[in-house]
Design a protein that fits this description.
The protein is built from nine helices and 15 strands. By secondary structure, the chain is of the alpha+beta class. It has a six-stranded mixed β-sheet, with helices on both faces. Strand 5 (183-186) and strand 6 form a beta hairpin. 13% of the residues are buried. GO terms for molecular function: 5'-3' DNA helicase activity; ATP binding; hydrolase activity. One of its GO terms (biological process) is DNA recombination. Its cofactor is Mg(2+).
């Protein structure tokens, strides 16, 4: 324990500023322990963070902490959380970045992408947004080289490759490489990363831009609907927010942690999501469907079932002779149609 503390003190020797990126995923308990460790490192136990200047970078509308409360939650559940909340309240300077440097430009496509980002931030994404993102699949991007292995990985599972250290200079754009001894890690999802043992070598060039989108569409022909879940939940009625809000049973007034506004529960907007588990040839598919997809197939607005979702669940469970079209990552249901339709490609995924 003493050696660990000595190493921490050595590592932070001379450090004046501590920058914490993506602070939205930092919970109250973790923040309190950061405070304690900073005090131990500097020896200044009576000063917040041991006298270090803390800079929090990120967007509170993004991913929240796991199994912990957000830093600004005003009802801490433990002594550590109380300490954390008090420390967070001492932050009194905010710098708001208003220009999106990653998506500059004035053409129509760039403007659509900026609006998509805003909706994604507010939890208000639509099927049209998903379709727009599909246009950036590797097979649709011209004049860009992709290794067959990573092209397939992106299409089937959205696996990203992160290159670290000296490996960065070994890789150049528009070239093909073979990577060995990579590791699978989880940051904000699955990710392959290079390691000290990774070897990078030149690979034979391949032409992958000719793949047709029709070949990538996956249809499941007449599967069995094993189970279904329909969730109806309130969302913030602030049109600039539209975040999902949670309410304690019996509560009439709720507060949105996204925009910090209070409202009557009865005045909230309502949203729904549908999850299906399908089985075909002993293989299961766990899918999420936007209401629009279900609406188009059933030819009715599923929001009429908001007071009794069991009726909608029953309809979904009783579906027969229906073909389901899946997204390329096999997670979204993008279309449903009667099996008699000649349009469907009945190749199972």
């Amino acid at each position: 324990m003493a050696s660990a503390l000595a190493k921490l003190q050595e590592n932070l020797s001379g450090v004046k500023y501590l920058i914490i990126d993506e602070f939205s995923i930092i919970g109250q308990k973790t923040f309190a322990w950061i405070n304690k460790r900073c005090k131990e490192a500097t020896g200044l136990t009576t000063i917040p963070f041991g006298g270090l200047s803390i800079i929090l970078v990120g967007d509170i509308a993004q991913l929240p902490p796991i199994i912990d409360q957000v830093l600004y939650h005003n009802k801490p559940r433990s002594d550590l959380a109380v300490e954390s909340y008090c420390m967070y309240c001492k932050f009194d300077t905010v710098v708001k970045l208003e220009i999106n440097e990653r998506a500059k430009g004035s053409n129509k496509e760039q403007e659509k992408f900026r609006q998509l980002q805003i909706r994604a931030r507010n939890g208000d994404s639509s099927l049209e947004d998903w379709d727009l993102l599909l246009t950036r699949q590797p097979n649709r991007i011209k004049n860009r080289a992709f290794s067959e292995l990573f092209c397939e990985a992106v299409l089937c599972g959205s696996i990203t490759l992160s290159i670290w250290g000296e490996h960065i200079t070994q890789v150049t754009e528009e070239q093909f490489f073979t990577f060995t001894a990579c590791k699978l890690r989880f940051y904000y999802g699955r990710c392959l990363t290079t390691t000290h043992a990774t070897n990078i070598s030149k690979a034979e060039a391949q032409e992958l831009s000719t793949a047709s989108q029709e070949q990538l569409q996956s249809w499941i022909c007449c599967p069995e609907v094993l189970n279904a879940t329909v969730n109806a939940y309130p969302v913030c009625n602030n049109k600039d927010c539209r975040k999902k809000v949670s309410a304690t049973p019996g509560t009439r007034v709720i507060k949105c942690i996204g925009c910090n506004r209070s409202m009557l529960l009865n005045n909230c907007y309502l949203d729904m999501n549908v999850s299906l588990q399908l089985e075909k040839d002993a293989k299961c598919y766990n899918l999420t469907a936007f209401p629009k997809v279900i609406n188009e197939f059933l030819k009715e607005d599923i929001y009429i079932y908001k007071e009794n979702t069991d009726r909608l669940v029953e309809k979904l469970l009783l579906l027969e002779s229906v073909d389901f079209q899946l997204s390329t990552n096999m997670r979204l249901l993008v279309k449903m149609q009667k099996h008699e339709s000649p349009e469907a490609n009945t190749d199972t995924a």
